[in-house]
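[09:14] KT: can someone run the structure on this one? pasting the chain below
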Amino acid sequence: MKLTIIGGGSTYTPEIVDGLVRRRHQLDVSELALHDVSADRLAVLAGMSRRMLAAGAHPAVVSTHTDIASAADGADVVLVQLRVGGQAARLRDETLPLRCDCLGQETTGAGGLAKALRTVPVMLQVAKEVRAVNPTAWLIDFTNPVGIVTRALLEAGHDRVVGLCSAAVVFQQHFARLLDVAPERITLDHVGLNHLTWERRVLLDGTDVLPRLLAEHGDPVARATGLPTELVRRLGTVPSYYLHYYYAHDEVVAEQQARGVRAQEVMEIERQLLAQYADERVTGKPELLSRRGGAYYSQAALDLMASLRRGDGRVHVLNVRNGSALPFLPPDAVIEVPATITAADATAQPVEPVEPLIAGLVAHVTAYEQLALEAAVHGGRERVFRALLAHPLVGQHAVADRLADLLIAANREHLPWAR
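[09:31] RB: done, structure tokens below
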């Protein structure tokens, strides 16, 4: 099969290549097509990918493309991992909100909106170009904010589209280590939106062991959430790490204002990674990549690709259209839940009723995401203001007004309607 990666110059690409080598029995990739708008980064990552494949005796060939049509033509799967504006834009996303005492984060809050404004139009154009030459390939969105981007693609009429996040696999692996069992024995009752999810049950061979995990392993479980152990036990669920931005917002903002933001660390990690990737003596995934984020990305992606190719009826945690899974949300909302893969589609499984503590926040953020998508597609300062006003991490009209001006000014080169 041909696997295409749009954004192949990303520092994440060796994670995928490492997975291809380790899990070659799972996916018969014969061509890895890397596309990027940066010819320099593309050359570095293509060289690194070829060395990794050769060292692992993997037969796949690597092709490079700066044209989407040639990259996507004949592909079975197109994986998209873009960052419009690069890390410099991320740094702005994470620092500008701090001026208003709001969270600085690249996918959540005001920073997440800024990223959506830049990214959605580009992703819609990418999908259009892919579909012009390849109407049937599966399109996997790993580009943040995944929920908003996936909804944009689906609402534009693109079929065979799913959004992917590795958060559920990370928790599955974490729980399996704590329980000293094989990860395959663990399934999760995972519900919510991208970067706004909760593990309500942890099933070991079909039996819920979450109460045992919280009682016997409360501290390591809580550390993975960024929240105090006692709070996680009181909740009786395991929130994703992104929930601590909501449940401890002021504490996080104070820490960011005092110590800086994650983007500053990531920029240095990427600089070092690219230097290692350019070193022809490096033939394996560097240890430093584990500090970049995206743990278990390749496992989640390759497991999904294998199912998509076979249409095998397996269940994966994905970002898909809601339908009737969460009846308190619109059918066209995109949610992150276990979904069943068929040859033609990925469909959300039925979901047990969601308690008000979770449902209220999910509904609130879904409304924001709808407004964010409208702002990203149609533009306009008033739409940006309304999206910010709707977000639970902003919410105050004076703050939303100021942030709207800051975000538009900082991203003007990526917003045709604002030039």
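[09:33] KT: thanks! The chain has a mean pLDDT of 97.
[09:34] RB: yep, looked fine to me
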